[in-house]
Every structure is written in structure tokens, then in C-alpha cells.
User: What shape does this take?
Amino acid sequence: MSRLEAKKPSLCKSEPLTSDTVRATLSVLKGVLTSCYGPSGRLKQLHNGLGGYVCTTSQSSALLSNLSVTHPALKILTTSVQNHVSCFSDCGLFTAILCCNLIENAQKTDLTPTTVIKLNKHLLSLCTNYLKSEACGCRIPVDFSSTQILLCLVRSILRSKPACMLIRKEVDHISALILRAFLLTIPENTEDHIILGKSIIVPLKGQKVTDSTVLPGILIEMSEVQLMRMLPIKKSSALKVALFCTSLSGDFSDTGEGTLVVSYRMSLENAALDQLLNLGRQLISDHVDLVLCQKVIHPSLKQFLSIHHVIAIDRVGVALMEPLSKVTGTQPIGSIGSISPSSYGIVKELCTAKFGSKHFFHLIPNEATICSLLLCNRNDTAWDELKLTCQTALHVLQLTIKEPWALLGGGCTETHLAAFIRYKARNEPESILTDDGCTQAELQLVAEAFCSALLSLAGSLEHDGGEIVTDIKYGHFWSIQGDCPSVVNWPDLLSRCGCGLYSSQEELSWSFLRSSCHPFAPQSCLPHETVGPDSNLTLDCLTAKLSGLQVAVETANLILDLSYVIEDKN
Amino acid sequence: MAAAGSVKVALQVVEVLETIVSRCVGPEGRQVLCTKPTGEVMLSRDGGRLLGALHIEHPIARIVLTCVSSHLKKTGDGAKTFIIFLCHLLRGLHAISEKEKNSLISDNFQTHERHWKNCCQWKCISQALLMFQTQILDCIMDQYLSRHFLSIFSSSAKERTLCRSSLELLLEAYFCGRVGRNNHRFISQLMCDYFFKCMTCTSETEVFELVDDCFIELNVGVTGLPVSDSRIIDGLLLHRDFSIYCPVDGDIRMVIVTEIIQPLFSTSGSEFILSSEAQFQTSQFWIMERTKAIMKHLHSQNVKLLLSSVKQPDLVIYYAGLSGISVVECLSSEEVSLIQRIIGISPFVLPEASSWYEISNTALVKFCKPFILRSKRYVHLGLISTCTFIPHCIVLCGPVQGLVEQHESALHGAFKMLRQLFKDLDLNYVIQASDQNDTSSPLIHKYSRESSQLPEISNHSIQRPYQDIVVKNGGELEKTQAYLKVYSNLVISSRGLETHIPCSTLKLTPTNTFQIDDTLKCLSPEKNRIIDDYELELLVDNNLTGNPTTENTRIEISYENLQVTKIDRTGSKLPVRYKSLDLCTSQSYHSSSVPAGSVLPVGGNFEILLHYYLLNYAKTCQPSEEAMVSTLIANALLGIPKILFKAKKVNYSFPQMYLRTLHALQTNQLMVSSQEGLESVIGKYQLLTSVLQCLTKILTIDLVINIKRQPQKIYDQDSEDEL
Assistant: This one.
């Protein structure tokens, strides 16, 4: 029966961005995002009136997935940021705020969207070319022979997520753990291309953060009762492992499309159980010590195996199958008949462990790139935030290994970039305006809008009423405490720039962020002692930030380009 | 409720559509955001999608939309131009009717009657439009416009080679109107690269067909990355992960299966009786051994890759892994058919239990490895093509799904457009020049013919001296059981009406009545065997000797030209020329074609050229409907360049450009185009005919009856589902 439904005609709105409600919504969204940005960002508590748990966060991924945005143009913005985050994990707020700033600033100029879009694109390629070039003054090479820069990178990420509720000591502990976990996933003997392993994050809530630890191999959680029932592992040498992906419960699937007639008095259950026991006998005769099964093992088979001192662990789940097969070197067995001896694997050691209130089996491999990161935090929400942060950090480290550069963080890249664009637009406009159609005056206006979007992004790192200045030599970001007495000569209060690369010992001249200054070419020479052993730089992932910049400008262009919104109201 | 269908109503409706569409047209056009009830957000500049998203209820608008969608289905381009052009045509018609109303202000018809009178008038106009489309347009295209055509082929004497720079210009202009402003250059480069990578030396059309048919399988969308990360990948990406992957070196053979390899207990319609536990266990054992044996057999044949369109049981996967065979499961039927089209193998059939013959349905694969895009895994296959298409895939990146989809549909449309462009378009028409009367206007008659059908027929139209083939056509014509088509030169030029007189037995006694025995020339089937199978068009010039002014007497003898059409079963047509010596009226049948790959510079060049020649043509016509229709169309054509040039600076404004072009045409200079880029002539031509057909459809409606009842069971399904 077909169902007829009257289609309502769609609603068509022209020039969506000019309406006041959209502008207001955009500025509200921007306000929410801006206030979360940076180490001193404010936290947001998200709770659903209909129930569910309360989430305290300042991360874009958690924030945007829970916010429901109604206007389609803003929906584009949020989905675009979410897509970016799912690709790179990092720089979500950066992308979102920059995009909002660009849209707002473009509307303030009285140019047509066409011109703004065209010039934004030119400015974007100017930025990306600069950030990728050797002459770039706001990126530093990552040296993999020492952990210093990598630690700085991880620490910067952890510090920028205040909802993890970590104190300084805990930040140091966790960042060291993350780096260790990452290093454990790098295979030792590398061939032409590296295949990174995996770090599995194991939750342990309600414990001290400093109880967190990294273990090589895999932890499989089990109940205490199960553990008690297990016999003590007597063997100290390597254990032979069989890993099943098929069910060992004696169920009977795949009979085909026809009918199956079972005669009276015949018991299929017995037949199936016979088969399972035969399998058990084969496993024992093959001297298997450990049987792992993705699905369920029949209790009789379990019993049979434990009589013969074989450890059986079932219901492992599909998520652990790939790491398990990697750790043990087995091939998942899909047959309950004959098993090829080549599908067995080896585990160096198996032990039980207790962390907090939880009991685990710990499979220690000979040599594998799988490790378990046992992550503790005091409560659920803080743990969730910490977990997301750890995943971000691990991902950023992976990205950095592909492109071994890091950008200066703490707002310095943004101010430096803005100074660079301003200088280029003023002094070499013809290098930016490669094709026809736009005048230099238009370029000045759009470049100013672009730069102020970057600067106000950097400015939103400051939440405590402080003032922000840039030096006019390097174009870095310096912030002055807001509560200082005004009589003091304020340059004396500055000690280090946002990223921590420069100190105010040098003879620098200053300019307030909000006031416009004469364009200058930011110097790009990096000090020699960039990374001392005790240096504490704030760094950002180059790959993520570069892509975030591109996505922000592209999305802003897309939204500025909208001439109609057609809403299907069905 | 019934509403009068009139030009005014149609104009109002189409004007609304035009205001929406005109902002997205051309290089300056902007994006439209559509939301679906599911919450999905779609970005588009594609006219067809946009109109569809509006969910319009107005009946006339729905007629227009149906026409647009059927046009799009054919050509993949021109929905926005369609609306604009239609709107201008209606506007022109409306202006004419307003003028007439003013002149007839004193008439004292009742309104109802006037409505019917109007409808009658619209019907006449629609006939005239139809006649223009079928008869005049081709002539203008061939005789005047064709001299301006450029070709995207670099023309060497014999073989045509596709010129890359021209193709780039063409695609850039196409994507200008389809994707966001910043991306069109990049996307057109991508498409160009893709095309040249996929194409072997001379396989353009086949490549277009294959890519057009299987475009969904040939691209992968990735969200969250900037658009500039889009790229082309050698080989084929399957949207699946390996069920099991065994890395291998050396040559890889693969097979395709469409059924479950493991034997099952029972197939559908059969019954399997289990009578004992032992039997059950042996049959399970047999199944296992059998699966193992099949895998061993495949392994012995050097098969390393198994592509399956169904889900295989764990057992199969396990034994495949043991034999070092990688498995990809759950391929869609489209993917399987694409692979089969590329490598030309049929699915592997499971051998009978006893016979282990050599497997013939295997194909060599260059490589097969996992491919990771944004943490999603794909299967990357390096197929060795046996057809002219070299497999490549496009990875389309974009920050949001809507943008990726927009690029995907634009690329698909571009392939459709190219597919059309690479075909010849035939133009057929008859020029009848009569220098007997004061009517200097040629009557052009077009024989409609399938454009792809026998394009070289026209070369056979042989003109012979009339003395050779003098036919006593009394006996001949009596056999003709078809219909008699009677055209009057005068009727057509003044009214544009066609009269069909069905006639079962045709009795012409020309020798007695009309005395044309010595002036008739024709080809008869018996005399000319070569053209035996073709239909003969017998154009009989019946001339009343010495009495050319008897038009107002009885209608049977007032026709100056009598055309007899005999339809043969084959359905093909062969034109035959006649010449009446007395009248010196010549009817020449012309058949030419717009060659494949004809293009014109973008920016309204086609429209302005056609406008110019139509006006010239209208001047030569008598002040009749024909001239009126030509002028109407000519003026409506200018609407498109007007919109295109709206945002331009002073020097490139529309009037400037228009005057420059006209001046160039009048002085026979070369046209100077202000813009780079090319567009397909065939696409434009098809658009024009589609719009004219749509307009005739609208004009012939006099009443719209609104039915508030559940639709009947029998309804036209694709009329509403298309958009």
C-alpha cells in the first residue's frame, strides 16, 4: 500500500547572511566557541533537558556534536569543523573561530561577496605557501632524536584542554605517558614504509591521574570471579595461542535456503557438542595453552579445556580482534573442523593484573607495536575529556611523524602571519593579484579583514581582561596581565611571548593588537638555542593547523557565496 | 476548480523561477543551500537540483519542471538557461498580446468568448513555434551560424585529435556555472587530467559512456579535507575493506564469484533430511573438506584475490587466508559489472565435484592493496584493462559533504555534456526557392530524422536530368496506400497550418487535368534499385497551366505544390528532388550536420549570433507569423547574455559587447570575445529546441482543471519522480 503525503512547498530565502537573526546567531555561536579557546578558556556544561549525562567540556568535537544548530548556513560551518576534527583531531576551535571571524569581517566591508571570496582565496594561498616554505618564521623542525619538542607538543595540547582538570605535575606525567605509548607503536625494524601500531586506551575511572600507566601488549578486562576460577599459570615460557573468530557455542547457522528435516530421536545438540569436543581434543594435542574467542565458547568446551589446563577467554569482541591477531601473530580461525597448525600464534607471557578495582589479563607479546594506555581520572566527565585529549595527542604525533614540523603556538603563529600578510598586501600587491578583476584598494580592504580575523582569533586566547601586544620585530604575541596597576611601565611586565621562544630582554618595540600599526616584515630568524633542555615551548601541529586554516577559509567562502537558502519543510 | 491557462499566468510563474535561477547563472552566479527534511544540507548551483528542491505545486510550473528534467536527462546541462530563455519568450508573447488588446479595445466580445479566441490565437502561435523549431532553426544553424563554429579537435586532415587546451577552456566554462567560484579552475584541471589519463589513443566516446554510466563507482568522496587535496588515483578504489588481506608479490590473478563458495546443506526448493548424528557430522566434514579443496584449487591456479558479490561464511574466509588468497566481499552489482566491463571476465562458476579443470575466468591484476583515506579503508585494485578505458579513480575532498556532492554531480554532468558533444548533430531541411512569384522568401521544410541514423544518406540524393526518368505516374501513384500530405505554399507562409488529408486510394489524373506529364521528374523504386528500400518522397508540382492566380477558388486545385509522401516499411527516407520547369521552383533538400566537437566562445556568443541571423531572416519574411516568431525568439535570446554581463564593468557591459559583436558581423570581421572559454554548440541547440517544445506545450493549454481526488492507479510515474 502506498502512502500519500502532501508535500509542502519549500521555503526560499534570499541573501541569508544579511538577515539580523542570522548575524545574531552567528555571533552567539562565535561567543560560545571563543570563550572555550585556549588554556584559560572557560568550560561549557552541556546537559540535555530530556535526560542523559552532563558533559563538561571545552573541546570543539564534544561541543559541536552536542549543540544543535538550526540555521542551515551555520550547520555548514559546524559540520565542516566536525569533519576537520575527525580528520585531524586538533585545531577544531581554531578553524571554527577563524571561520566565524572571516564571515563577520567580510560583511563589515562593503565589497561584493565575489570580490571577497576571490581575494580570500589568494590570501589563503599566500599563507599556505609561506607556512610550507623554508623561509617561514613561525615553524620549527621537529627533532626525533630528542623527546624535547615532542613533549612540548603533547604538553601544549594537554594544557589547552582545561576540562581535563589536570595540575601541572599531572600534565607532565600524562604527556610522558602519551609519548611513551606513541613510541611503543613504532616498529623497531623498519622497512621502506612504517606501519604504525595502535595504542588502546583502557578506562579506569575514579583513580588518581598519576596512577595512569602504559603497558606493552593487550589488557583484557575480566571479572574477579572469572579470574579466581582460572588456574594459576604455571608455564613461564611462551604460550601457544589459538584465536577464533567463529562462534564456539555449537550453534548451527548457514543451512541454506531449503528446508532441513531432522528426524525424531536425533539430537543436533549432541552432534554439535561432539564436534566441539573434537576440536578441544585437537587443540590439546596441538599443545595450545590459550584459547581466545571473539564470540561465545560453549560451557562444556570451556570446562573440557580447563581440565586440560588450557585457558579459555571468550567474548573478546570484534574491536580487539585485530590487535589480538597482531600481538599474537595468529590468523583468526573461522573453522571448527581441522585447524591448520600455521594459524596458531605465540604470546611471550600471560599474567593477571589488578589496577584499581578492575582485574585484567595481560598479554605480553614478544615484539609487537600494540600497547595499552591505562588512563585514570577522577570522574566520568573529566575522564572523557582526558581520553579525547589523549587521542588527539596521539593523532598529532602520528601526523608529525609524517610532516616533521611544528608551528609556534600560543597565538604567535596568528600574529606573525597577520603581520606577514599586511606587509605583503601593502608592499607587493601585484604578487597577490595574479589575475584580473580586483583592484589594489579591494585587496587592502580584504587583507585587513583577513588579518583582523587572525588577530582577533589570537586575541581570544586572553580571557581574563588582559591586554595583548605584538612586537614589531618578530610579530609575536605577548599578553599583559589584566589586573596589574596601570601606573607600572607595562613592558616590564612582559617576560615571554605566547609560544615561549622570545623573551623581552631584547630591545623590542610594541604595538597594541587592537590598534593598527605600520606594516612591517616580520623577521624569520630563529634563535640558535631554540630548544634547550629546559625550554618550554608552546607548539601546534603543522598539518592540522594548515588544514584548519584552509578549511576555515574555504568554508567561510562557501557561506559568503550563498545567495539562497531553500528549506524543505516536510 | 478550473483556472484559465494563459500566457500571463505562465509568465508570472516562470518569472518567479527566473529570479531564483538568474542569481546562480554564469561565472558570477552564487551558491544555493538546500536543506532536506532529514536535516541534510546540500549545496548546489545546478539548476535541476535547485528547481527540484523547491517542491513547486503550481501546475504550469510543474509542466516547466518536467520539461527541464527531461532536457537535463538528455544533456546534463542548461537548466538555468532554459528557465531564463523561456521567461523571455513568454515576456515577448505577453507584450505582443498586450499590444493587440490595446488595438482591439473597442471590441465588444464577452470576456469568456475572448478567452476562447485568445486560446485559439495561442494555438496558432504555438504551431508557428513548432514549425520554426522543426524547419527554420536547422537552416539558420547550417547556413549562417556554422561558419562561426570552432572545433575542440585540432584539425589535421584525416584523424581528429582532441586538443587539450580547447578541452580545458570548454570544461572551465562549464564548471564556472556549476561549482563554487574558487574551485572551477581546479576541478576542470582535475577532470581534464582524469580524462586524458583514462583515455587511450582514440576512445573518447567509449570512455565518456563508461564514465557516465559508472561514475558513482569511479569516485570517492572525503570530507574534512580542503578541496585542493582532491586527486586522481591510478587503478580502481572499491568502497570496501578486505575481509582478509594476504600481501603477495609477483603477479596476482583474481576471480569474481557471485555465490557462496561453501556448499550449504540445502538449496532453495530442496529438502535435506538428517537422520543420524553421524550423518550430520560427515556432511559437515564434507562441507569443510570441499571448501578447503576449492580454495586449494584456486590457489593452485595462482589465484590470489577473490572478489565476491555476496557475504561469504567465516569458513571460506579462513581457508582463503590459509591459501594466501585475499577476499573482498559484498561488492555491489554495479561495482561487479564495472570490473567486468573493464577486464572482460565472467564470474567464476564452482566446478563440479570431480572435475578440476583449469579456471579460465581469471584476470591478471597489477596490484591489490589496502588504501586508507581519512582512516577509512578501501581496496585499491590495479586492473589491467582489456577495453579502451584505463581505470582511474577520482578522490574528491571538501570540507562538507554538500560540497563534495556538488563537485561529484558537476563532474558527472560534464561527462554527460562531453558525451553529447562528441556526437554529430544532423540538420535536415529543404529550401524551396521559388522565383516565379514575388514571394522572395524561401520555404524551408525539414524532414525530421533521427540524428544518428544514416548520416550519409544525403550523399545519395542524386539529381538526374528529368528526361531520363519520365514516369507515367498515374499507375504508380494509385498504389500508394499511405497518406497524402498537402502543403500549400501560401498557407504555410501565412498561417503555418498543416493539413493532412488521409487518402486510401489516391487518384490523380495528372495528364488530363494538370498537364504536367512532361515536367515531372521522379525516381521510382523499380527504376532505381539502389534506393529501393527507402521511402520516396514524391513532390509533385501541380501547376495549373497559365492560371497561377486561382488560389481563392476551390481548394483542391488551389495548391501550388502537392506533396505526396509514401511511407515504406523500413522507415528510412530518401529525398528526391523535383524541378518543375514551368515554375522554376526549386526545392532542394539539404542535409548537413553540426560536426562533433563544435564549440563557440562563451558569454552569449551563440545567442547573439542567432539573434542577429534570425533578425536578418525575419526581415526577408513577409510580415507574417513566421517573421513575428523569428523576431520573438531573436529578442528572447538576448536575455541570457544580458544576465551574464550584468555584473561586468563599464567596458564589458552588455550594450557595449552587443554593439561590438553586431558591428563585427556586419563588416564580416572576426568576432572578438571578451572571455576565454568555450561551450558546446550542440548543447545550446538542444536547449533551444527543448525550450520551444516546452513553450508550445504551455501555449496549447487553455484550461487547468484541479482535481482533488486520490490519484488513480494508472499514473505517469516518471513525470514527478524525476525532479
Q: What stands out?
A: The radius of gyration of chain B is 32 Å. The domain at 2-149+597-615+623-721 of chain B is CATH 1.10.560.10 (GROEL; domain 1). Chain B touches chain A through 71 residues (CB under 8 Å). Chain B has a mean pLDDT of 71.
